[in-house]
Write a structure and sequence with these properties.
Low-confidence stretches: none
CATH topology of the largest domain: Alpha-D-Glucose-1,6-Bisphosphate, Chain A, domain 3
Shape: globular
CATH superfamily of the largest domain: Alpha-D-Glucose-1,6-Bisphosphate, subunit A, domain 3
Helix content: 25-40%
Largest sheet: 6 strands, mixed
Strand content: 15-25%
CATH architecture of the largest domain: 3-Layer(aba) Sandwich
Number of domains: 3
Number of helices: 14
Length: 454
């Protein structure tokens, strides 16, 4: 098990767990691992979200990179996908996003990206950890004229804005209607300024909320994890659509004109349908995770599409897409990867694909979302002995209970059991048509797992 990195980089309480000392070591080791095969002075980009601890972590990160001998371009507050895009565009050697995504302000995190703009592989994170704990950091200290230099490159945001103008300007302008207006919730996070600039550049009428970050209000009762305020705003102001981003801007969820949620699975269905009509859905395939709703399986079956499912985590979705040449994938949480444009989830990109589809097909958001029916889901955590959390697969009573429920569903429901990677928990997820029934059966299986694996 890795010591520092989790499923999405390093994420901890800032300044007490994610200390400047730890950040310095991670940066120095990361610069070494990610650029050891280069024959030039490496350049590394750093972007961050709006958390109060952002500049603290940025300073320690910069110091670590410079101490190794890397040069740094500081991008300031910028969404994760913007950093990924610029890394590839500028041919930088690596980049880092300082963010804890959808978490509350006291957390912060570090995500490394490769020179291709993709999150680095598990094996590279493990190598960084080895260097951190090997005593090697002193050996890779730059001396004299080899010390790196940093510079502020805040104007590079214009490259990201131009990317959207280049890809959407003409088509959106051609189909735009006067009565089309969008509400945007930026979660007081990394998209708070750039989203408004992009929507203005594209001429899309919009009203923006939760775009006044103060360092501690990121994700606070707003954004993609708290949709209640946006739902109310959309209905009360008769908006055509509501868009919610998360703290670092790599997720997008939507609200239709009636105040109903359009989650990641629905977005994948809507976008896949539009791409397929244009002949642009590679291999007629969507890539999602095992946590995607059964409704997505049913949608793909009905429409002659293929659904490939991976482990939970957008990095595993991307790995499968790159390996097999697919161009659309994502997660229920709103990470949608459109590989023809950007190699990571991009909330603004996802929202513009949805808007473009609405305008091209002249349909309301609710009409587009009706192509997929989602099944009720129940998720219950069973508390177990940490050493036994994988033993559910060997226990005959647990296997029998799961099998019985699956037989009763007869293809119209499913049971998914997932041990937590970090906690002494086994997660029991059941989907089916009857909310009351699946809740009862999930509780029964969770109780049995707790009893047998305590």
């Amino acid at each position: 098990m890795r010591k520092y990195f989790g499923t999405d980089g390093i994420r901890r309480i800032a300044n007490t767990e994610l200390t400047p000392e730890l950040v310095y070591k991670v940066a120095k080791a990361g610069a070494y691992v990610l650029s050891k095969h280069t024959d030039h002075t490496p350049t590394i980009l750093i972007g961050r979200d709006t958390r109060i601890s952002g500049t603290l972590i940025e300073s320690a990160m910069t110091a670590g990179f410079l101490s190794y001998g890397a040069n740094v371009k500081l991008l300031g507050v910028l969404p994760t996908p913007a950093v990924a895009y610029l890394t590839r565009k500028l041919k930088a050697d690596a980049s880092v996003v300082i963010s804890a995504s959808h978490n509350t302000f006291e957390f912060n995190g570090i995500k490394f990206f490769s020179n291709k703009g993709t999150k680095i592989q598990d094996s590279l994170e493990e190598e960084i950890e080895e260097v951190m704990d090997s005593g090697k950091l002193e050996e890779i200290t730059a001396k004299n004229e080899k010390i790196g230099i940093s510079e502020y490159s805040l104007d590079l945001v214009n490259e990201y804005i131009y990317f959207f103008r280049k890809n959407f300007d003409d088509n959106i302008e051609k189909h735009l209607k006067d009565d089309f207006e969008v509400a945007i919730d930026t979660a007081n996070g990394a998209t708070y300024a750039v989203a408004e600039r992009i929507f203005k550049e594209l001429g899309i009428k919009h009203r923006i909320i939760n775009n006044n970050p103060d360092g501690i209000n990121i994700n606070e009762n707003c954004g993609s994890t708290h949709l209640e305020g946006l739902k109310k705003f959309v209905v009360e102001n008769k908006m055509s659509l509501g868009i919610a981003y998360d703290g670092d801007g790599d997720r997008c969820l939507a609200i239709d004109e009636n105040g109903n949620e359009i989650d990641g699975d629905k977005l994948l269905a809507i976008i896949s349908s539009n791409l397929r009509k244009k002949g642009k859905l590679n291999k007629d395939t969507i890539v999602a995770t095992v946590m995607s709703n059964l409704g997505l399986n049913k949608y793909t079956e009905k429409n002659g599409l293929q659904l490939i499912q991976t482990k939970v985590g957008d990095r595993y979705v991307l790995e499968e897409m790159l390996k097999e040449g697919y161009n659309l994938g994502g997660e229920q949480s709103g990470h949608v990867i459109l590989l023809d444009y950007n190699p990571t989830g991009d909330g603004i990109l996802t929202s513009l694909m949805l808007i473009q589809t609405m305008l091209e097909e002249n349909k309301k958001a609710s009409e587009l979302a009706s192509i997929i029916k989602l099944y009720p889901q129940v998720l219950i955590n069973a508390k177990v002995n940490s050493d036994k959390k994988y033993d559910y697969e060997k226990d005959e009573d647990i296997k029998k209970a799961i099998s019985e429920v699956e037989k009763e569903f007869a293809g119209n429901g499913r049971v998914l059991i997932r041990p937590s990677g970090t906690e002494p928990l086994v997660r029991v997820m059941i989907e089916g048509e009857d909310q009351k029934y699946i809740t009862k059966r999930a509780e029964e299986i969770a109780n049995l797992i707790e009893k047998k694996l305590k």
